[in-house]
Specification:
The chain has 171 residues and is of the alpha/beta class. The protein is built from 5 helices and 6 strands, in the order H-E-H-E-E-H-E-H-E-H-E.
Length: 171
Amino acid sequence: MIFNQPPDINKRRINQVLKYLERFDLKGKILDVGQRSPMTEAIEKRFWVEIDNTEYNLDYLFRYPRTGYDFILYLYTIEHQFNPLNTLFQLKAILRKSGKLIVVYPSNNCKLIWSKYHYHEIDRYRFKQLVEAAGLKIERFDQRMPCCRINGIRPILRYLLGYNAYYTLTK
């Protein structure tokens, strides 16, 4: 997914996520939605934690090693899914009552800069609707500048008009 980007872009994205996660006492059972990635490894290394990963197709039924997760990390994945609502239902079912679901995705409100690799470009209004439909609550919203290389008109527009959305969700 995001890791076919140039290394400097990946490093900036990883550092943004690590900085956001510093506000949490990241311990207990942690699940990263999707395949293991350099992001997963960086989080494990920085916070001295072990992270489980999901298996199989996220748009249908997927497997996870345990239930009762304290933290679920849904990082740069939701925009690549055909049916993120189904995934949110499944994640809610395995999240502890006091657990946190961290969702991060690029948000581009301008259709001109939408990515051809994304099934969804989700703005704040639509994400709120998606979260409410899944029976979850938004505890916190933050946004960060997008990580992109300025080498053409679309990257310039993405940098000026887009942002990375950071949400903390609860049951």
